[in-house]
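To whoever is on call:

I kicked off a structure prediction for a single chain this morning and the downstream step that reads the tokens threw a length-mismatch warning. I double-checked the sequence; it's 117 residues and nothing unusual in it as far as I can see. Pasting both halves so you can look.
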Amino acid sequence: MRTRRQLAVFVGGGFGAGARAVVASLVPGTLWATFGVNIVGAYALGYLLPRLRLAGRSRVISVPLLGVGFLGAFTTFSTFAVQLWHMPFLLSITYAAATVASGVAAGAVGLRRGRGR
């Protein structure tokens, strides 16, 4: 069972990284692409986890495949951190605050919708 979960994370991660690469190629400027994938990923994870729990699938392959693998690779903290490092100070503070606030809000909305409220 452990090997199946590891394989699920590996496969999901491959698709998530590919999806992020597609978004980065479609959205001009990596800043907006990074911001977009992180916010969409926060919403999707907030929505997905309660839906899988309600369906009784939280302990099988779905969470490692979709939550850890796909959304873990689709979102990117490392790119976000590197972008902050190379920005002027005030812009980096603004970008960080906007990303964190939007991510928390998107996750909360996704969680609420995932629970069916």
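Update from on-call: the warning came from a stale cache, not from the record. Cleared it. Sanity check on the structure: Residues 6 and 64 are 8 Å apart (CA to CA).
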